[in-house]
Amino acid sequence: xYDQVAQNRRRSVLLVAGFFLFTALTAIAISYGFGFGxxxxxxxxxxxxxxxxxxxxxxxxxxxxxxxxxxxxxTTYARYHNLVEGLCIASGLPKPRLYIVDDPAPNAFATxxxxxxxxxxxxxGLLQTMNRVELEGVLAHELSHIKxxxxxxxxxxxxxxxxxxxxxxxxxxYSFFFSPRRRKDSDGIGLVLAVxxxxxxxxxxxxxxxxxxxxxxxxxxxxxxxxxxxxRYPPGLISALQKLEAAPSVVRSGSRATAHMWIExxxxxxxxxxxxxxxxxxxxxxxxxxxxxxxxxxx
Length: 299
Fold this sequence. Notes:
Layout: H1 2-33, H2 37-57, H3 59-66, E1 69-71, H4 78-91, E2 97-101, E3 108-112, E4 118-123, H5 124-129, H6 132-147, H7 151-177, H8 189-231, H9 234-246, H10 277-282, H11 289-297
Parallel strand pairs: 2-4
Antiparallel strand pairs: 1-2, 3-4
Helix pairs in contact: 1-2, 1-7, 1-8, 2-7, 3-7, 4-6, 6-8, 6-9, 7-8, 9-11
């Protein structure tokens, strides 16, 4: 488990570097291919650098804002604060900022760049659905994401998907309404780079999503095990997961960009829950809850 945590930290650094490089190369190819010249390339590099900077320093605020999370009042949500404080003392973690998402679906997520700059958000539905032991299991799961340094990668993925999707939209709109500017090399390297840029913009969101899936599935299982180590009571998290599996999980403020952050995928999984359910199942960011429960029962 501790080797996995160390690997998570290394992967976080690699993800930041890879995000900057992929975004810069895509933007440069589009800029050069469509004849924007050196100024366009400089702007592309600046955009990539600013995106990486914002992704590292401000991505938690972006994720909380997208999810419509509000600070949890200590008096109104005393049980929530007390459970987190107890778990943090037991695990040696600083207490994260606590937030509430006003939604009847039971769900929760953690965000931030490290344990000293972290936040946990839960839905009102989770607080109403879970008893004390079950809620402790869910909160331990989210705190495990913080302790295992999962939150930086998960939160960066939100910004990464957004930037790459924006690049894809700009490139496709430009290629539809305009053709590459005529240049001496328009039938050579310029045209090739234009095509490469558009292709990168098209497949970029898919690549980012696949990275998101690979990262999230492994870390969800690790967080389950870490949560049990933190609470010393597997039945609490098992019971919580059973309730999550039985209850509607669709969160109104959930999106595909933030789906990997929640303890259960917040996007519609059946026709009854909403549109695009088949596509959501294809790109489900979490291992099946039944598998997670089975793994915990073997402990």
